[in-house]
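Human:
Take a look at this sequence-structure pair and walk me through the tokens.
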Amino acid sequence: QVSLAEARGPMGMGKWDHIRTLCDIPAIAERYKAKFGRVPSDDDVTAIYERFMPLQIEKIAEHSALIPGALDAIADLRRNGLKIGSCSGYPAVVMEKVVALAKTNGYVADHVVATDEVPNGRPYPAQALANV
């Protein structure tokens, strides 16, 4: 078991790295060890990731509402000549769905970079630099 607060701790990282980071938290590693007799390996992280991704893709629409006021803020930024880049801890397969959902709500970024499109996702700057 992982609490919601624990799960949200490394939010924004690429999802495989997010799961690895969670598994490295001593309390979580100990709970895993109590259940499986060992701390989680990279193979275990990959197995969790592969089970998690289809669930995330299935549920993403339930958590994709635009932040109130975002469209107005983006319109103001664009009126001032700025372009809008987007990056996330989501891999490209999830971002495709997020981008499509956002478009139905009136939001289209000028450029989108998924975490698996760069060598290192968050907290590293590769996604932001790719947007620039």
